[in-house]
Amino acid sequence: MKCYIITKGRSSYEKNLGEKRMIEHHDLKFIDEDHDRQRCINQAMANAEQLCQRRGQRFTALRRRVFELVWCHHKPIGAYDLLEKLQRDGRTAPPTVYRALDFLLELGLIHRITSLNAYVGCSHPEDLHDGQFLICTACRSYAELNVESISTAIDDSARDSGFAVQRHTVEIMGLCPRCQDKQVTS
Ligand SMILES: [Zn+2]
Ligand SMILES: [Zn+2]
Fold this sequence. Notes:
The chain has helices at residues 37-54, 61-73, 79-88, 94-107, 148-160, 177-185, and strands at residues 5-17, 20-31, 77-78, 110-113, 118-121, 132-136, 142-145, 170-174. The protein folds into two domains: 1-34 and 129-186, Ferric-uptake regulator, C-terminal dimerisarion domain (Dna Ligase, domain 1, 2-Layer Sandwich), CATH 3.30.1490; 36-126, Winged helix-like DNA-binding domain superfamily/Winged helix DNA-binding domain (Arc Repressor Mutant, subunit A), CATH 1.10.10. The chain is an alpha+beta fold.
């Protein structure tokens, strides 16, 4: 099976900014449709299980199933689509599904893409962070950025305006490398 994952590496570098030491992570990854899905999902489930254990939380059957559906989809998925998929399993109560989503959000296993009213799996849930996303408007694939300097710039600018940030998500719309290629070749 062809595995086609575009990764611009994870380069960590530290900058000395006066007293402040900043570590910048740049993790840019678009996942192709025909990658090894089973391996991908197994890995994500194992990571999620471990994270729940470390935080002393229960990864119940419903939480597990909701996370699996969000992750498997590999594209932002709306609550309505999730409910529809869960109905096929015989689980229908929307409030319990929303509670499971809230739990996964709280733990950092998934993020909410507000502009699409949808959810995505987090590629590095170990450290709690605000999400920064590149979202392809053609195929809806996404890549999660985790650039510390973006968060810092937002927080600093907000503070300068006397604004207290509670959370922020950066959503950037555009075309992924594959869709750009398709445009060139078509
Ligand atoms: Zn994340
Ligand atoms: Zn695309």
